[in-house]
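S1.2 Input.
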Amino acid sequence: MATPTSLLDDDGAIVRKVAWRIMPLIMVCYLFAFFDRINISFAKFALQSDLGLSDTAYGFGAGLFVVGYVLFEVPSNLMLYKVGARRWIARIMVSWGVATALMMFVQTEWQFYALRFVIGAMEAGFAPGVLFYLTLWFPAAHRGRVTSMLFLASAFAGLFGAPAAGLVLAHFDGLLGMAGWHWLFLVGGLPCIALGLLVFVRLDDRIADAHWLTPDERTRLSQRIAEQGGAAGAHGSLLDALKTPGFLMLGLIYFLIQVASYGLNFWAPHLIRASGSTDPTAIGLLTAVPYLCGAIAMVVVGRLSDRSGERRRFVIALLLLAAIGFFAAGLFDHHTDLLVLALAVMGAGVIASIPAFWALPPKLVSGAAAAGGIALINTLGQLGGIVSPVMVGRIKDLSGSTTPALYVIGALALLCAALLALSLIHISEPTRQE
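S1.3 Output.
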């Protein structure tokens, strides 16, 4: 995997120092954010059985997380810009940790719906807030690798979280009179509270506050970030971001990427189970495969995109790879070995496309426009998290199979690649290391 020691150029010692200070904690926080996506997919079967949910109802409940997330996303990130990342990210983590742990008390369908909405509202602003925070600390020439490092945490959430979820469901069910899926959310929520407190103590809001850097290091790092800001520095508000050519297109593209991402995250365990594997531990291990491939693809693409300065073409290639994976998963839905291979291709494309995509918005916006703009792009994208689970669940209830939904998502991935290939030419110019 990429490590902070790989971030080398003329100012490599400073960037390396910043990376070792910031990235380990940020990555662990991001890992726990994605544990929730993994846990809800593994809790699906037991949760549906205990609460009497159809696939459509499960998809609706899973999607309500995104509704809460979307409604509070932009206000949350604008508040982060006002009060500082350290305080706001800490608040987000503590509140969503508490809400996630409360899933252990869910006994009815409506409690499930309500709490999924609350968890989304509490987590709102975390991902774009962290992405904005990284733009304050890392020059543009390093952001491909740094963003890949961040999103490695989401891949590791699947790589380690999927087997762990399988083990919890297999061995904790009935412990202290609690269902296994109740334990799943308790174990996923409590560490977030401790991590939030650690963020408050460990992180700094600005380079000027970083007393662990020398005055010369602070000056050089600030200058390098300012030098690589480019034309984006001219935009100073969310309204300016909305007026920027190509900005809303980025929102549409991220929406389509997230349709694919939630299709993988929420339904991979179901696909493996439907192909013939029923042991929770085995399903957990097999579900980790696409995330492992996604982690490898992230590292490779992050290095290559930083070396070339090209971002857009890498995202297009990854989306084409994701489309191949979805089509193949539909073709081999009853053959476990071939299905896992298709999921591996799907994971490499979908998971690696997300950090590659997030290197594009800072080419358009910065400052307050970046704080609100990145949140708005993420909000538009997260709508895919509402559409995808409900769409897949509804198609399965109507047809008795998830295969048609896989073909639909594959087609949307192709559409996304085409939109990116035919637009946003003006942000494809390389940002190279000087």
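S1.4 Remarks. Confidence is low (pLDDT under 50) at residues 1-9, 230-235, 429-434.
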